[in-house]
Amino acid sequence: MSETPDLTEIELDSEWMCRGRLIHARRDIVRLPNGHTSDREYLVHPGAAVILPVFDNGDIMLERQYRYPLRREFIEVPAGKLDPAESAEACAHRELIEETGYRAGDLKFLFEFYPAIGYCDEKMYFFLARNLEHVGHERDHDEFLEILRIPFVEALDMIRTGHICETKTVTALFWWDKFRSGQWTL
Ligand SMILES: [Mg+2]
Q1: Res. 121: pLDDT tops 80
Q2: How far apart, in whole angstroms, are the C-alpha atoms of residue 128 and residue 108?
Q3: How much distance in Å is there from the Cα of 12 to the middle of ligand 1?
Q4: Helix H or strand E segment including 26
Q5: Which residues are close to ligand 1, an ion, with C-beta < 5 A?
Q6: Which of 72, 140, 147, 186 has the most CB atoms lying inside 10 A of its own CB?
């Protein structure tokens, strides 16, 4: 029986490259499995809650947002960063109300995933939001977005046609497709 090789890289040194308002980046020196050293640069992220809001008739709620780094708009599920010491569930609840103006009567944790493992330690916690009640949004002063209500099948087709092409949104819709079709159970 062959032994599983240990691929662990050991931190030898670590320093901040950048500490901006949003972007925090570190550069570490690591010892590689073969004993050599190398450097690893990565973004440090507090984690985020991602929410797929589903209306009673099966329609889903998406957002249209301008994303400055790509200089274009994207259609996305609601999401936001965890505040210090905030639970993922509390963050999901808060972000949904802040961004969309809807409160979820039923918020269910589904899974967690890592959107950018090559250069970022961000972890995303994914929630399904149902029993939606409109209570009014509380957006940040620099946050502009349009709320869209779309039949699920139409949203899924927007992946095929390239109109939805952003990682957390594609992931969310494919997961929900498995659950709503009964292939996977909650
Ligand atoms: Mg957001």
Answers
A1: yes
A2: 5
A3: 35
A4: strand 24-31
A5: 80
A6: 147
84 three-class SS: coil
Give the pair of three-digit tokens for residue 121.
Answer: 């330690």
| 170 CA to centre of ligand 1 in angstroms | 16
DSSP states of 125-169: EEEEEEEEEE------TT--EEEEEE-HHHHHHHHHTTS---HHH
Instruction: Say yes or no to pLDDT of 96 above 70.
Output: yes
Kindly state the helix (H) or strand (E) to which residue 94 belongs, with its residue range.
helix 88-100
Residue 63 Cα to ligand 1 midpoint, Å, equals: 9
Instruction: Output the CA torsion 185→50→121→115 (10° steps).
Output: 70
Fold of 48-180: Nucleoside Triphosphate Pyrophosphohydrolase (3.90.79)
Query: 146-163, pLDDT tens digit by residue?
Result: 999 999 999 999 999 999
pLDDT in tens, 128-148: 999 999 998 888 888 889 999
Position 142 scores a pLDDT of 84
Predicted local distance difference test score (pLDDT) of residue 54: 98
3-state helix, strand, coil in the chain (%, to 5): 20, 40, 35
Domain locations along the chain: 10-43, 48-180
